[in-house]
Write a structure and sequence with these properties.
Layout (H helix, E strand, L loop, with lengths): L2 H10 L4 H13 L16 E3 L2 E3 L3 E3 L10 H5 L5 E7 L12 E4 L4 E4 L8 H9 L7 E5 L8 H12 L5 E5 L14 H18 L5 E5 L5 H14 L3 E4 L19 E4 L3 H14 L6 E4 L5 H10 L3 E4 L1 H6 L3 H15 L5 H4 L9
Parallel strand pairs: 3-4, 3-13, 4-7, 7-8, 8-9, 9-10, 10-12, 12-13
Antiparallel strand pairs: 1-2, 5-6, 6-11
Length: about 350
């Protein structure tokens, strides 16, 4: 943690979490954050669904919902970043308060409800972004939409030409009935529609699928079957959870999705099962509770080709990205792996 972060993070915690998050984004755009550029090495350089990454550490969607801080985030050490979610029309999301810190658990609960500026404004920012590490967009659906599958396709058609990958997000718990789209028939129809749009408007853009951690073995099998059949380029495992076991503090029972440290084991087990079900033929991105190089390495060994983080930055600051990337390099070397790809799935059995 930098000296500026040791000073600034306690000050940010004096504000309500959503205000603090806005201030953090503002600090990024003002240059008040580490900017070492992408951390890389011969071991860390890797490929994900045809994308060349300087390292496998990515920023999860939700941190930069409106694509306003792409330039500074691209210099923070990440190997790739994901912004959004974007919906066809701007929407305010759910009423505040809707973001809660769980300091004792190193976690957060949010029920934002896809608040964003809408695809037109976000597309304009993506079009003007600097070239550098891969930047992807999380696709969302408007709360009042009567055609959510059509919403995903619409956002992709509008923003797809300006991104390096796009993620179909059917796993947020904060838009009513959205997770129902993870059912086999609904998911198959949704993905085929999105992929048809991709092929027509931005054929070079890989399409990823983001799933929930609260899935049964049978549901996970269905998702794996559909992903293979449709030709999804990668799967992100996982989004936030509705589980509240073992939490502490006054906000432990707030409604919404839980992210951060308590999610690590659950999301990693889902990742390992999905790696087994897809036989390693679909690249996986591990997200959920990553807050150290050891945890990033564990997800890679469980089956991930890359990882993403977000909540840990609230507690450790942006310099955590560099620490994780450099620590991961050391861990790969210590176990004799010459690349991330060599380590992917090497210890999957530990999580099954």
């Amino acid at each position: 943690m930098s000296a500026l972060e040791r000073l600034g993070l306690p000050l940010l915690r004096a504000f309500d979490p959503e205000t603090a998050h806005g201030l953090a984004l503002r600090a990024l755009t003002l240059g008040l954050a580490p900017a070492p550029g992408p951390i890389t090495s011969s071991r860390l350089r890797t490929s994900l669904a045809g994308l060349d990454l300087p390292n496998p550490i990515g920023l999860a969607a939700g941190f930069d919902k409106n694509a306003t801080a792409i330039a500074p985030l691209s210099r923070a050490g990440f190997g790739f970043i994901e912004v959004g979610a974007a919906t066809p029309f701007a929407q305010p999301g759910n009423p505040r308060p809707r973001l809660f810190r769980l300091g004792e658990d190193r976690a957060a609960i949010n029920r934002f409800g896809f608040n964003n500026d809408g695809m037109a404004k976000i597309a304009a920012r993506l079009k003007a972004r600097p070239h550098g590490i891969p930047v992807g967009l999380n696709l969302g659906a408007n709360k009042t939409s009567d055609d959510r599958a059509g919403d995903f396709a619409s956002v992709l058609a509008t923003c797809g030409p300006f991104v390096d990958f796009a993620t179909v997000n059917v796993s947020s718990p904060n838009t009513e009935s959205l997770r129902d789209l993870q059912g086999k028939a609904a998911l198959d129809a949704l993905l085929r529609g999105v992929l048809e749009t991709r092929n027509a408007s931005c054929p070079r853009v890989p399409v990823f699928l983001k799933i929930a951690p609260d899935l049964s073995r049978a549901e996970l099998e269905d998702i794996a079957d559909v992903a293979r059949a449709c030709g999804v380029d990668a799967i992100i495992a996982t989004n936030t959870t509705l589980d509240r076991n073992g939490l502490h503090g006054p906000h432990a029972k707030e409604a919404g999705g839980l992210s951060g440290a308590p999610l690590f084991e659950t999301s990693t087990r889902i990742l390992a099962r999905l790696s087994e079900l897809t036989e390693g033929k679909i690249p996986l991105i591990g997200v959920g509770g990553v807050g150290s190089s050891k945890q990033a390495y564990a997800k890679i060994c469980a089956g991930a080709s890359a990882v993403q983080l977000y909540t840990a930055l609230v507690f450790e600051g942006m310099s955590l990205v560099v620490q994780i990337a450099k620590g991961l390099d050391d861990l790969l070397q210590a176990d004799g792996f010459k690349s991330v790809a060599e380590a992917t799935g090497a210890k999957r059995g530990d999580w099954l």
